[in-house]
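Let's study a protein:

___
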Amino acid sequence: MTNPILLEIDDEIALITLNRPERLNALNYELIDQLMAALDRIEGDAAVRAVILTGAGERAFSAGADINEFSESVRQGTAIAVRDFVRRGQAMTARLEAFRKPVIAAVNGLAFGGGCEITEAVHLAVASDKALFAKPEIKLGMPPTFGGTQRLPRLAGRKRGLELLLAGDPFSPEHAREIGLVNSIVPHDQLLKAARELAGRIIRHSPGAVSSVITAVTRGLNMAIAEGLLVESEQFAALVPSRDLEEGLAAWKARRPAKYVGA
């Protein structure tokens, strides 16, 4: 059987590919579980400084949940559907959102349903000019369940988020950029190059500082400003004894490039 997740590591960047192109990279339970396992594998690997997540084939990043598999869970009742589908999907997007290394979605085609929710959850996203987004769960008679009702309105604003969630219509990469779902749009054949260039602009900096920024922003967005400032202070305090902060300050004073060691 074809592995539903491909993992390649090169130049400190892990490329994770959702690999069910014949099903438009639909998110079945095996794929989600293997994606989580891949994240577990690279989280503690010092050779990996950033992650790019994309889809196999020319048509889709991910068309969303595997409806045939999900339908069987629904048939078995509420407890099974919530356990197997909702909790699994929410755990995946929460893991991506809180990952301590930058995760960049390279959206190469359809990003519908759960594929859009992955894009919402990751830290940064670059879209192909052939990408297409949608929140079509409403057409199935249900709300999004992998975090879409929470993250999309936070990104787009309440009214724009609700319009996308309630109408269920596809929207362009230009609209995705306008509402803050993606950072940039590039020609299709330049997608991975652009994602790698973005990753390169990040991994030139201290790994500890990068992780601290991600953590402070991710946690702080769901807090009052006073609580968020405490998180920011905690993240800074953890870096005060680090060699990277010492090196960064010394390099700035000497007007030379910093040489970070990740400690």
About this structure: The mean pLDDT is 96. Residues 154 and 161 are 8 Å apart (CA to CA). The first strand starts at residue 5 and ends at 10. DSSP finds eleven helices and nine strands in the chain.
